[in-house]
Amino acid sequence: MSVTDEIKSKLDIVQYISKTVPLKRAGSGRWKAPCPFHHEKTPSFTVDENRQTWRCFGACATGGDIFNFVMKQQGKTFQEALEELAKEAGVELRPQSPEAKQRDQQIERLRGLLKIVADYYHELLDTPDAREVLRYVKRQRGLTADTIIKFGIGYAPDGWRNTLDMLTNLGYSEDDAVSAGVASKNDSGRVYDRFRNRLMIPIRDERGRVVGFGARALAAEDNPKYLNSPQSALFDKGRLLFGLDLASKTIRDTGTAVIVEGYLDAIQAHQAGYANVVAQMGTALTESQLKLISPKWAKKIILALDSDAAGQNATKRSVEVARETLTADYSGRLQVEMRVLTVPGAKDPDDLIRETPEAWAGLVENAVPVADYLIAAETAALPARPSVEEREAVALRLLPILLASENDLYRGSNVQKLAVALRIPEDKLEGWALEQARKLTPPKPAAKQYNQPPVQPELPSAPADTSDDLPDFDSPRSLQRSSAPIHHSQPRADEKIPLELDCLHILFTQPDLYYHINRKFRELAGDHPLLQSTLSDFSADDFTRTAYRALMDTFMVAVAQDEMDFASYVRTHLAPELFEELDAILADQWEELRSRVTFGADLDMIRQDKRTVRPVEVGVDVILKALQLRRARIERERQELLFLSIDEGDVMSQINGSVLAKRLIDAELNRRTQRG
Length: 676
Description:
By secondary structure, the protein is an alpha+beta fold. It folds into four domains: 3-89, Alpha-Beta Complex (DNA Primase, Chain A); 108-235, DNA primase DNAg catalytic core, N-terminal domain, CATH 3.90.980.10; 244-440, 3-Layer(aba) Sandwich (Dna Topoisomerase Vi A Subunit, Chain: A, domain 2), CATH 3.40.1360.10; 493-675, no CATH class. Residues 327-333, 442-495 and 589-615 have low confidence and may be disordered.
C-alpha cells in the first residue's frame, strides 16, 4: 500500500471536510454545501462518501480527493498536503531504501501470483472432476451460483503438484509459491501444494486484493478441518477482516458493522442480503482489525460470535481489545457503541441464516449492550455463594470496560447494574471507578519525525516503445460462461487503475502525445461549448488514485513550461514521495506482466504481438485510453449532479452536456473498436 493510500484508508473525507464546511446529507453516501472556495447562494459543492471525493459544479469547476481539498483550501503543494494529512492520520513519512523497494516489488509479484491461483481454483470448481464438490457447495452449504462467483469460491484438486506445475509453467519459481503460501516445503527440501482436495475461499484485503486462502477439508479424514494460508508478508489474519472489501460501503452507509467468526458465516449473511457483515476468521478481535472499520466508518459494532464457551471467551477478549484500542485515542471514552448478538440454540450464524434468514435482522436489532452481556456472563460464572474476594475480582475486571463510554448516563447505569448483580455498595464501586478512570487516561503520543526524501530516479531520455492496450488481466472468472460479445471499449471498475497506469506510462515516456489527446477532444466537441466543460483538456481530474492525480498535475506543468526540458522539470519539481510511483509507471511492463496474467493466458504470444506495434499506434492507443477515462469521469460527475439542489435549469444543462459528451465518446470508441 502506498503512503497516499494508507493515509486515505485512515481518514474519512466527510469527517475531514465537515470540520470547516457545513455539509448536509444529500442522498446515500453524498453530502452538499455552498462551495467554500467562492460565494454562492445555492450549494454546488458535493462530497461523495463512497468514492472519498469532492467536486464543485459552480464557478470553481474542480474537485478531487482529500489531498486536493487541502491543497486548494490552504494553498499547499502536494508535498505539504501529504505531510499535514500524514500527521492527521498518524502515518510516518520516510524514504524507501533499495531493500524496501525490492521487497515491495516482490510483494506485488506475489499478489499477482495469488490472483492467478484464485482464478485457477475458481475455474476448477466448474470442471467435471469437481462435480461432487460443486453439488456439496450448493446443496449442503446452500450457496448460490451468484455467491460462488461473488466470493470467488474454488476447488483445490487432490494431488501434490497441480498448483505448482501451473505456476512454474507461467514462470514463477517454487520459492515464489512457498512465499505466497500456496506451497509448502518439508525438512528434506521437497516442495508440494499446500492445499489439496479442499474447498477454497479466497481471502481479500479491504481493497479487494487476494492475500491468502481459507481452505475447508472435503474428506472426513483430512485434518485440520479448516486450513489457512500461513503467516507471510501478505497474509496476517490478525490484520484482516474477511469480506470487508464487499461490506465497506454498507458499513459506511449504515454506520454499523456486524462481526462474525468464520468465512461461511459472513458469506451466508451476504447471500441473505446482510451486507454489513465481516468475519474475524476464528481469532479474537485484534486492534488492527478494529481500526479497519472504526471509528472511521462504524459507529456501532455488533459481535456475533459463536455461542459455545470458546465463542463467549472470544467475545470477552474482543470487547477488552476494543476498549484498550479505542479509549487510547479518546481519553478513556469508547465512542463506538458495542453490542453482542447471541444466536439461540448454540447455532453458528451460518446455520441460523441458512435455515431462517429472516431471523437475522431481529437478532441484530435486539443485540444487547456489552455491559449487560458481560455482567450476565461474569456473574453466571460465579459459584452459588461467591465470597467477597470473588465478587471484588469480577468488579475489578469489569469496571474498565463498563466505564469506557462517552456517555455519563451510560457509565452511571453500568455501575448501578454491576452493584446490584454483585451485591456491592454502589459508592464503593464508584470509588474504584474513580481510581480506574485515572488509570485509563493515556499519555500523549510522541510527535512523528519526517525523514529526508529518497533519491530521485532518472527519467528515460528517449520515448519507450509502448503499444496497444493489453487484454484485461485482473477480471474475475465466472463459473457460467457468457455468450454475449465483449466490448473492450467499456472498462469495468477493476480495469480502472491499470488503465490509468498505462495511460500515464505512455504520457511520461512520450509527452507530446498529450496534445493528440486534447486535439481529439476538441474534434469531438466541434462548435459546442462542451470544449469548456465535459470535453476540456485531459487533466488530473480524469484519474482516481491520489498519486496518479498528483503525477498528472506535475506532467501538465512540465509540458506547458519551456524553461527546462520535460524530464529535467519532472525530476526537479516532483514531490519526493511520488518517485516510487513514477518508478513503477516507467518500469518495463514486461517484467511485471507475469504478476498480472490470469490462468491460461499465452504470455509469449501476447509479447510477440506487442512487439509489432509501431509508435504511430501508441498515439492511437493513448487516445483510446484517455477517452475511456474521460467517459468514466463524466459518469462520476453526472451522478453527483443528480444530488444537487442548485437551479434546476443549470443542473439540467450540465446533465444534458454530460449526456451529449458521453454519446460522442461512445460513438468514437465504437468506431475504433470496429476498425480494430
